[in-house]
Design a protein that fits this description.
Shape: elongated
Order of helices and strands: HHHHHHHHHHHHHHHHHHHH
Helix content: over 70%
Distance between the termini: 77 Å
Number of helices: 20
Length: 369
C-alpha cells in the first residue's frame, strides 16, 4: 500500500497514467487476430454486441496482462475518495475501459456502491450491472445494486435495455430480480421489453418458474399497470411467434406453456374481457385449426406440430373465460366448441405426451360447460 501522506496525490496520478490497449503480433494465433478485429469493428461501428463478443471471449481465458499493483491502487483510491474513483472510471467513455477497471476490483461492495451513484453514463451502468450479475451473485446481496444499475441505463437508453434483455433473458439470477426492475420502469421501457422477449420459449426450465413466481408476487396495482401498458404488444408478439413457428416447422408435440405464460394470459384476460371479442378470437383460432389441419405437410411431425400450436392459443382462450363459460350463450361459441371437440377426438392419436389424457379431459370439460 502507498504511504498515507502521499496516497491522495500518488493514487490519482498513477490512475491517470494507466491506459489499456489491445494489440496482437503478426505471428499471433488467428483467433486472437479475429478477436481484435471484432473489437475494432465494434468500437468503430458503435456495436455493443461485437464489443461484448470480445469482452466475453477474453473473460473465458484471454484477458490482458495487467500491472499487479493496479487492483491495490484502485482500492486505495476508493478509500481516499469513493466518488472521485467512480467519476474517474465512468469518465473514460469506453466500454472496454469500464470492463477492465471494474474487473480489477475484487471487493464487490465497491462496485455495489458505484451502482447507487448518480450519472447519465448508461454504458458504465450496463457494465456495472453485468459484472455484479456475473461475478457477485452468489448470495442475495447482488439483487439491490444490480437492480439499481439496470434501472439507470434502461431508463436512459432503450437500445441498451433491449441488448440487456436479449443477453440475460434466460439467466436464472437475473430472473430473480427481473420484476423488481420492470416494476420501476415507465411505458417506453415496458413496451421495449414486450417487443424484445421471446414469447415462444417453453416453460420447462428454472427460469420459467422463477419468472412466473416473480410476476405473481407483484402487487395487483403494479401488475395491472404493467399489463395495461404491454397487453396489446404482448398478444401481437405472441400471435406472430405462433405463426412464425408454424411457418418454420417448429416441433411441438403438446400444449406449449410459454415461459411468459402468466404475462400472456394476463394480457389476454384484459384484451378479451368482453365476451363478444373473446368469442370472435376463439372463432378465428378454430378456423385456423380447421384450415391448417387440412393442409398438406411433408411429414406427420409437421402436421401435429401445427395442430398443437393452434390448439395452444385455443387452450389459453379457454382459460381466460374458465369461470365464465357458462354465461356465454352464443351459437357461434357452441359451434366453435363442437368443431374443437370433433378435432380433438379425430387427432387424439397425437396426444402422446405425459399427462395428455388430463389435458384432453380438461379441454373437453370446458367445451361441455
Amino acid at each position: 500500500m502507498l504511504e498515507d501522506n502521499k496516497t491522495s496525490k500518488t493514487v490519482w496520478e498513477v490512475l491517470g497514467s494507466i491506459h489499456f490497449s489491445f494489440n496482437v503480433d503478426e505471428c499471433a494465433e488467428r483467433v486472437d487476430i479475429e478477436l481484435l478485429r471484432i473489437l475494432n469493428e465494434g468500437r468503430n461501428e458503435g456495436d455493443i454486441n461485437k464489443i461484448y463478443d470480445f469482452i466475453e471471449t477474453a473473460e473465458r481465458g484471454n484477458q490482458p496482462i495487467i500491472n499487479s499493483e493496479v487492483p491495490q491502487i484502485l482500492e486505495d483510491a476508493y478509500k481516499t475518495d469513493a466518488r472521485r474513483l467512480f467519476r474517474f472510471i465512468e469518465s473514460k467513455k469506453d466500454i472496454v475501459d469500464y470492463w477492465t477497471f471494474l474487473s480489477l476490483i475484487s471487493d464487490k461492495h465497491i462496485i455495489y456502491s458505484f451502482a447507487d451513484m448518480e450519472s447519465d453514463n448508461s454504458y458504465f451502468f450496463f457494465e456495472c450491472a453485468r459484472q455484479i450479475l456475473t461475478r457477485f451473485s452468489n448470495d442475495d446481496s447482488y439483487k439491490s445494486p444490480c437492480t439499481s444499475a439496470i434501472i439507470k441505463f434502461a431508463m436512459n437508453d432503450l437500445n441498451l435495455w433491449n441488448c440487456w434483455t436479449k443477453k440475460f433473458e434466460n439467466n436464472v439470477k437475473y430472473n430473480r430480480i427481473i420484476w423488481n426492475v420492470i416494476s420501476k420502469l415507465e411505458s417506453p421501457q415496458l413496451l421495449e421489453y414486450s417487443r424484445t422477449i421471446r414469447l415462444i420459449e417453453c416453460f420447462n426450465n428454472e427460469t420459467g418458474r422463477i419468472h412466473q413466481e416473480g410476476f405473481l408476487k407483484l402487487g395487483a396495482k403494479e401488475r395491472d399497470r404493467i399489463i395495461l401498458t404491454i397487453a396489446k404488444t404482448i398478444y401481437d408478439q405472441w400471435e406472430s411467434a405462433l405463426i412464425e413457428s408454424k411457418n418454420t416447422g417448429k416441433y411441438q408435440n403438446n400444449i406449449l406453456f410459454s415461459k411468459y405464460y402468466s404475462v400472456i394470459l394476463s394480457s389476454m384476460e384484459l384484451l378479451f374481457s368482453e365476451d363478444n371479442i373473446w368469442a370472435a378470437e376463439m372463432e378465428k383460432y378454430v378456423q385456423f385449426l380447421e384450415s391448417d389441419i387440412e393442409n398438406w405437410f411433408s411429414s406427420e411431425t409437421k402436421h401435429f406440430s401445427v395442430f398443437f400450436l393452434n390448439l395452444t392459443n385455443i387452450y389459453y382462450l379457454l382459460l381466460v373465460k374458465e369461470n365464465k363459460l357458462e354465461v356465454i350463450d352464443s351459437n357461434r361459441v357452441k359451434t366453435s366448441f363442437e368443431k374443437i371437440e370433433f378435432l380433438l377426438t379425430k387427432y387424439e392419436c397425437y396426444w402422446l405426451f405425459e399427462d395428455a389424457s388430463e389435458y384432453i379431459s380438461r379441454i373437453k370439460n370446458y367445451l361441455t360447460y
